[in-house]
Specification:
homodimer; 455 residues; mainly alpha; Tetracycline Repressor, domain 2; three-stranded mixed β-sheet; 6% strand; elongated; SLC41_membr_dom_sf (chains A, B)
């Protein structure tokens, strides 16, 4: 299905290019307008530069704003496309765009360019941009659109419906109408469904839902996504601390947030940014190399530890054989524990950090004891040495316990420090688990050496 | 914010429990109805069993259907709640529920119970259930609701608007109206926005968008989610191969799909199911233990390999020190490669499998050469042995190359076999990378032993 769609976009690019090359500007516009909004962005980005030079001259500002609202490429690249046009044209397009997308572009621009475009806009537009770009990334404020419909309590159904019709073209979507008091404080929500199914002369009080679920502009986007996902909302209002309505966040932006957060967590666990798996081999190398080399250098600590215990290995070379097993199993236990903790602390949990730690401790001890007993049993039957079996089993159990707790505590501490636990690097935790496991293993083995050397 | 909300739900449970215990049934209903739909589910599940025994008797079927539509617990547990009522009441609630949720519950029931409920429903309802539960899990068909509004081409704006108003109560959401021909084949879409902003007497032809994006009932839910996310749709129509309209999928279900798929990929990479991080310690142990023990047993292969090379280690004990480093780095390279490949093949890529493999080969060779040279350099300056440096560097490079390619090929093969690459277990791939790395390492080291033993 995806492939078909790419094919369709390519065909549209070709056909529209032909139109412009043959001077059929009107046919070009008719065909272009018939595209879905998302496709308009894809097709425009697919044009050759010399075709775009003609295309933006043929299109009106509103159509171009739709194009720029739907370009799913890096903001930097969108800004480049914008700069293919004269500054005033660019400013017009920015003003026609949805406020959240416009603010994103301003945030991607060098300050020189920000100044250029703002100088070409009316003062009130510049004010609005200013009020939007002040929100930190990954907060509700940075996601919010200012195109929504707010009415005063006391309005009649028919008047609100008339306003809905008038604003339907501009707003991202009118599914809810927001009811505010004289100070623009959010007091309730009316659904379009209720507007349509109630008498024209009724005042909206009786169909206003005053149990409004809203978010604050500074709230983390992850928490906002959770609320929207739980409640199955199409959009959610954003207020400041004084309950003044600032904007709305629509579910399509929430879909992007959920995807972005998931990619972030997955990238952390894999020690590589997976947000664009269609990178060129060189881009792919650049993303993988830093962590791979950093982990390699950190891994040398494990080597140095084993070197330090060389006398022990000389006495019992069999010990060397269990190094990868014990380090690897500690790493596996640490990875499991890390993944659970990142999900727990990152996505909101009913438990306190203390409760979670006690639960993890119980689980880790249980896992450690079972795995340690299993390995000790296997080693006893395989190598016939009770001393070796006890040393190896004990080392494994201790390693699993330490690795699990470490991998649990790191994300908990980050969350307390208001850092997203998703940044924790899985293989880095594994590497530290390796160090600890090797230390624990040789400390135990060296201490018990008399129990199995020469047996 | 999340905590506040949990607090609110607890308060509502308490207050509503008090109402019922004091016999204030009317006040109970008023308070309960004022809750958001999502909260109705949470609150009902929060009641003690003896309170639910009274609550379902006080509530009408429609309210209970909303409760059951919004229970965000395991389908098994929802079925248990349903069985607290007499079969006929249960059947009534099922019929009032949205078709997709109803079908999910039927799929979770033992066949005895399916027969009980179906026997209490009119034949046509039973037919509809039958037609819905035939779709495989994780397909568009399994997600789709059958509550949508379809009109024939040629209808007038005012007539369609009248139908919208009439059906607004039943349908999940009316944002689009679907236009079908005489054989119920989907021919276009009209947005509610356009209905509201065009004259009553106009026929809908002129505002019908005939470039419909739809999905097939058998399409993978991941692909459906991708389309909805790309196009920013609120819902998407589902058809069969003959373009007959079967149902719609709304964006709130897509939000759940994206979350579910992300959890699946993350769980695979961590070798533990992270879908419910608030498990009790025992549940947590049960989820972690199988993979931890399986990986432990498989890790014994690494131990056996090292044991087999014991004569080599006896000659050069320093070799043991590099085992965790080489195995660990191969594992890290494999994890990075696996994560990229799972995202690439799982989420649709523009590249063919062959192109992707060539790209991975170029990247892997580059990474292998750089990491190998770095390690060889470090070992040369640290240990002063050119032979050891060459052996260790070469072994690392070969291990990285093999691990990267293996971790890339496994998900590619799964995708070709129509198995979701997300099932690949990260630590399992790491364990296999360990085996290969140890084999490669000792094969190279044993072959070059004369170059560094005794130096």
């Amino acid at each position: 299905m995806e492939l078909d769609h790419d094919q369709q976009v390519k065909q549209a690019v070709q056909s529209l290019t032909d139109r412009l090359e043959n001077g059929q500007d009107d046919e070009f516009m008719t065909e272009f307008t018939a595209l879905h909004d998302f496709e308009k962005g894809q097709v425009y980005a697919g044009f050759a530069e010399n075709i775009r030079e003609v295309a933006w001259r043929v299109m009106d500002d509103e159509t171009l704003a739709t194009v720029f609202d739907n370009l799913e490429i890096d903001p930097d690249e969108i800004v480049d496309l914008l700069q293919e046009m004269p500054p005033q044209k660019g400013a017009n397009i920015l003003m026609e765009m949805f406020a959240d997308n416009e603010a994103d572009l301003f945030q991607a621009m060098p300050s020189r360019l920000v100044a250029t475009y703002l100088a070409l806009m009316p003062n009130e537009e510049a004010q609005e941009i200013h009020s939007l770009i002040k929100y930190e990334e990954q907060t509700a404020g940075s996601l919010m659109a200012t195109e929504y419909l707010a009415v005063q309590a006391g309005a009649k159904v028919k008047d609100v419906l008339a306003q809905v019709k008038k604003q339907a073209e501009e707003a991202e979507s009118i599914i809810y109408v927001y009811v505010v008091d004289g100070q623009n404080r959010l007091v309730g929500i009316v659904s379009l469904r209720d507007l349509l199914t109630h008498p024209d002369e009724m005042t909206i009080e009786s169909i206003t839902n005053t149990r409004v679920i809203s978010v604050k502009a500074g709230d983390d986007q992850k928490d906002v996504a959770q609320v929207v996902a739980d409640y199955n909302f199409f959009s959610i209002p954003v207020t400041n601390d004084g309950q003044h309505l600032l904007g709305i966040i629509t579910v399509d932006d929430i879909v992007d947030v959920i995807d972005e957060e998931a990619v972030e967590e997955y990238s952390g666990l894999a020690a590589v940014d997976v947000s664009d798996p269609d990178d060129s081999p060189w881009q792919s190398v650049l993303k993988r190399l830093p962590w791979l080399l950093a982990l390699l250098v950190l891994g040398l600590v494990s080597t140095a530890l084993v070197v330090a215990f060389e006398p022990t290995i000389r006495q019992a070379p069999i010990l060397a054989a269990f190094i990868p097993l014990i380090a690897g199993t500690a790493g596996n236990a640490g990875t499991q524990s890390l993944a659970l903790a990142v999900r727990r602390f990152g996505n909101g949990s009913d438990r306190s950090v203390g409760q979670a730690l006690v639960a993890e401790l119980i689980a880790a001890v249980t896992l450690a004891v079972i795995a340690g007993l299993l390995l000790a049993g296997i080693v006893y039957f395989w190598q016939g040495s009770r001393g070796l079996a006890v040393a190896v089993g004990l080392a494994l159990a201790a390693s699993i316990l330490v690795a699990s707790l470490l991998a649990h505590i790191v994300p908990a501490v980050l969350e307390k420090m208001k850092v997203d636990p998703a940044v924790v690097n899985g293989p880095l935790v594994q590497t530290v688990c390796d160090w600890l496991a090797i230390l624990i293993y040789f400390a135990i083995a060296a201490g018990m050496l008399d129990g199995f050397v020469g047996k």
